[in-house]
Design brief:
By secondary structure, the chain is α/β, with parallel strands linked by helices. The protein is built from four helices and twelve strands; from the N terminus they run E-H-E-E-E-E-H-E-H-E-H-E-E-E-E-E. The protein has a domain of 130 residues: P-loop containing nucleotide triphosphate hydrolases (Rossmann fold, 3-Layer(aba) Sandwich). Helix content is 20%, strand content 26%. Bound molecules: zinc ion. Zinc ion (ZN) binds next to loops.
């Protein structure tokens, strides 16, 4: 990340966004791990609705792992005694997370958020849309397009038969037979 000027006082907000399979959680954990090595008080929280991993660990596609609380209790998050807070899958927290992030950065916490910037229809997630405007530092990661091998910035949702998912489908649908892959702008399809 290009961070030539680090705020000298107070906290700040970093956002790591991009499509699925772009390594967002990997980058989040890399930053938190470095802070932990520097003996800073670090906590990682993922939304209560994120049931992809069992237990209290976040494990990335690349196998990096870190202890993670699973909670969407905003008041509990706000009271965490941390120097660095990581929030994974920020788009799945309630809207009130925006105020929590602001409050914590205001009292000196470095808040690192990772999440999807757009849903499979290429529509921005409201929470991260506002967060991207407010954040001091933003990194948009790319995956690799499974169709053409170019840089992929979009999440392609596919039906069980491999056809593009319809725009009328529900936004959050996990384990319902559909699957996702990374695609570029030219290869991305919504039926
Ligand atoms: Zn492509």
């Amino acid at each position: 990340m290009m961070m030539q000027t680090i705020p000298r006082t107070g906290g700040w907000v970093e956002v790591v966004c991009g499509p699925m399979f772009s390594g967002k959680s990997e980058e989040l954990l890399r930053r938190l791990t470095r802070a932990a090595i520097a003996n800073q008080r670090v906590e990682l929280v993922r939304p209560a609705s994120d049931t992809r991993h069992d237990g209290d660990e976040l494990v990335t596609h690349a196998g990096r792992r870190m202890t993670a609380h699973r909670s969407s209790d905003l008041e509990w998050i706000r009271e965490l005694d941390v120097e660095v807070l990581g929030l994974d899958e920020i788009q799945f927290f309630p809207d009130g997370i925006l105020d929590v992030v602001d409050d914590m950065a205001g009292r000196g916490v470095r808040v690192v958020c990772s999440g999807l910037d757009m849903d499979y229809r290429r529509r921005p997630w409201p929470v991260i849309q506002t967060l991207l405007s407010r954040a001091e530092f933003i990194d948009k990661l790319q995956a690799v397009c499974l169709c053409c091998g170019g840089p992929a910035t979009l999440s392609q949702r596919l039906e069980a038969d491999g056809s593009p998912a319809p725009a009328a489908g529900s936004t959050i649908e996990i384990g319902a037979g559909e699957r996702y892959e990374a695609r570029c702008r030219a290869c991305h399809e919504v039926s």
